[in-house]
């Protein structure tokens, strides 16, 4: 149990093993930089915070037992979505995107449970706010009045201080290192969810984030990053670090020459292509991004627009389109770089899909 600033208590659970066993929900989260830029230059703002937002989403009955925890008074499980689950953020973002599909990018910005109503003209703010409140009431979503602010000219949104003229980051100095990790996990969320992450630092991050007496914003950050498989390692000795820095600084200029020499020395490897795939799915459809790179340095890019499909279907379609593109240019040996754990496991034969809609792939 972690005490909040207002004196209430937040219950924290360790879902590391459960998160490792769960497949990634690829629903895209908004880019924080774009959200911050979009909120600048508005005369009036209203900051809306859902009351224990994740807990307002019900768990499927067959999944409730997976959240079981033990106390000195007995064994319990969650009937609502708890904090700390790997796909909790994506599930919540999917909900609010559906709720405010006509307002997003116009009069409202939403990042998971952080909602902001913004108006270019203050005369329009009441009508826009009423429209958004009616939608919240329609879905039965409860708000936290202590964290809401209506009709103001400035305030904090996603850790940035917003006002009419500019926005700036607002973080206390002792928490800057912790905040850097949180921002990285948000911006690189697909990679954090697909792969184990090692954080190399000279600061005792784990001790700070997981100490029993944490509260407020730090406790919220701890729950947020606990969704990922993160380990903390001390930084290596200075001599090793200097060598690593040297390689990092000069590898950009050295690698093209090394690749050309390798291609000349080993002509058989010239048919080795690398295929990178990615996809974006939203209400308007799916877009597949392909990049083919050969050892000689040639790069081929292609973007494909597709009709509505699920995130997993888009991942499969991207790989198939990429393989067809590689065959078109005569590639015979291809290395696949993909951020979908589901696709990779099926390609390598370590996982067999059971969902009937995906079996055709």
Automatic annotation (TrEMBL):
Domain RNase H type-1: 269-361
Molecular-function GO terms, alphabetical: nucleic acid binding; RNA-DNA hybrid ribonuclease activity
Stored CDD domains: RNase_HI_like, RT_LTR
One Pfam match: RVT_3
Domain of life (superkingdom): Eukaryota
Record domain Reverse transcriptase: where: 1-162
InterPro entries: DNA/RNA_pol_sf, Rev_trsase/Diguanyl_cyclase, RNA-dir_DNA_polymerase, RNaseH-like_sf, RNaseH_domain, RNaseH_sf, RT_dom
PANTHER family documented for this protein: RNA-DIRECTED DNA POLYMERASE HOMOLOG, TRANSPOSON TY3-I GAG-POL POLYPROTEIN
Annotated protein name in UniProt: Uncharacterized protein LOC104221565
Species in which this protein is naturally found: Nicotiana sylvestris
Gene: LOC104221565
